[in-house]
Amino acid sequence: MNKQPNSMDNLHQSKSPLKVNSQVLPSDELRSRFLTLALVNILSNMMVPLSGLVDAAFLGHLADIRYLAGVALATVLFNILYRTFKLLRLGTTGPTAQAVGRSDQDAVLLTLLRNSLIALVMGLIILLLQHPFREAGFALLSATPSVKAAALTYYNARIWGAPAVFINFVLIGWFMGREQGRTVLILSAIGSGSNILLDYLLIVYCGWQSFGAGAATAASQYLMLLGGLVFIFLEGWWVKIPTVTSSIFKLDEIKSVTKLNGDLFVARLALAATVSVFTNISSTLGTLILAANTLLIEMVYLAAAFLDGVSFATESLAGNLWGAGIKKQLVPLMQMSGGVSLSIGLGFAAILIVLPDPLFGLLTNHGEVMEEIHHYLLWLIPILGVWSLTLMLQGYFLGLVDGRLIRNSMVNGIVIGFIPAALAAWKFHNNQTIWLALFLFIVVRMIILGIQVPRSLKENEVAIAQNLESID
Fold it and tell me: Which of 17, 49, 259, 298 lies at a C-alpha separation of 20 to 30 Å from 326?
């Protein structure tokens, strides 16, 4: 792993040793950097559900279970909100990595400042609209009055962490774009560790129940943000801020950032809509099928924590290589990333198929639900297999900052792949068909992304030729 710069002398050193005229990066170094980034991302991703499990454990041991139920209810709204705005991380890593590849330190810093400003504005807007969002969200959620009251209390506390959450998305993306995996892991540990400690203090010691859980989560995000700012300060970036402030609001750059985030916003909404329709159609097929599909999807999400780690690593390195004008390592990067991602996806599917009872038994003890799950287990092989390659390709094109292609793949995946089969599943009340719809959604996305790879490599050849001409 590359060491972090800690003074102005090494601040200007690129995290990448790549040079346009050499077009050489030893395969061992590429492999090492990729595997290091992937591992760090996976560990960082796993801290989030771990923190959530600890939250549930504290609340689940209270005398009244309504606090746990209320937090689970309110978390549905935060999942929608925060998963959608995770685009701030996706839209930061690629541009940062490309700037690092070009050894353009001003662009690296400007990417952080512009995206952080956007994140801050979005966070403040969420705070201003917290009451309408709360009323609309809870109007769609069903629960007893006592559970809903606990959910509202949790929401009212946690929502104040929104600005920190959004800026943290940017910080994580920025550090990953600079291949600062160790920093990302430390920040994730700060966020999850402080959340656990504050849970104990506010829930157990102070007796604040669901309000304490929400306040602990919000406060932990600000502590994580503080940690990120400390790293930026120690690296010396603050010294350069006055020299680039006049460039922050350049109209062309603001338009470019806004367009990228807009494309990713549409893509995130499309994905959320697909999952929502999948769940709603599952609910029309009966409670048993809904429960089985929900647990299967939860396992798919668990696999995604690992697959996203590989995708993020691909995004960082692809952006770095693209910024440096190197073509030769893009194909090996995709081959390596695709192989690792496919192995993880199929490995997860195989383990779940071979050991369904002990693994799904951690989530339910209802025998009829377990029996229903067995009917659809084999769908995990094609879905996780194809999804693993789709996420690898998504990471590649995010590194190339092609938000338009990501958006189009999502929209076409819904229109061409998902909707026709989903309508058939709804009409004929067939659960196998709704799983087919989800599979086709992913397949269409993979095909659309895959056929654009040769085009991206050709564009890179043109960029290399132009750079060589400028050098000569």
Answer: 259
